[in-house]
Amino acid sequence: MKKVMVIILALSLVFSLCACGGSSTQKPINADDGSQQSSASGQPSVPEESDAPEKTAVTIENAVLLDQDGLVITAKELVDDSIWGIGVKVLVENNSEKNLGVQCNSIIVNNYMITDLFSCSVAAGKKSNETIYLSSSGLEAAGITTISDIVISFHVFDSDSYSTLFDTAEIEIKTSAYGTVEQVVMDDGKELFNQDGIRIVGRFVEEDSFWGAGVLLFIENGYGENIIVQCDNMSINGFMVTPYFSCTVNSGRMALSDITIMSSDLEENDIETVEDIELVFKIINPDTYQTIVETEPIAFSAK
Prior knowledge:
It contains 3 helices and 23 strands. It is mostly beta strands.
């Protein structure tokens, strides 16, 4: 099962990198006031490529992140793999009498929710050196060139029965650059929703992506509780399509996430370019799955 999980996660990361690294067309979502939009890349404009900020190498101190019920997780160092990118090398020690599985519930870098590549199983009484890899495309999309801090919450389960044993609170790892980084807020675009501290901004439409097309959203959660944002009743150019989108944003955090529309949906409706979009957002409590807010239909365009 561990090998299967690793393969699935690896493929997910590869597909994500393919989607972000292709020759897709990105069109800014139109603001009502006609204000200046972001560049076609979806990133803040820079005068010259040579002037763009370079990634800064940072370090972390050896520290115990978790010591609970016989499970000890120790952060050892930051690594930068040529294929998988930046990761946190950890030592996982299972001093319990159960075979344990460990995954991440969430990873937050410089206040942005970031996807990870990590899942491990450790037999009772054994140890394992592992690496929690951070999504390179997620870091790039958020404009993160220097990592200030990494916040992790773990999901721990019985690897034989897959029953949950416990979930941790957020655990912070401060890097050598902590306190020196002013993180960019990637909220340029059209504000689609702003209520009770929750903001959703439509940044751009990505055409010819790996899966078909995508609508990139910036989400900021000042609601005071963790939320899940989903969407429904979506149409493109007047044709109903099926959106694939679910984004968890912890309290006080930000996220960048794509609404994915499959190429088959676009082809069946003869949609060659995404212009007019309408959808409904659903904001859900991740613990109870009760709906916090369901919006009226929201219309916007990218022409």
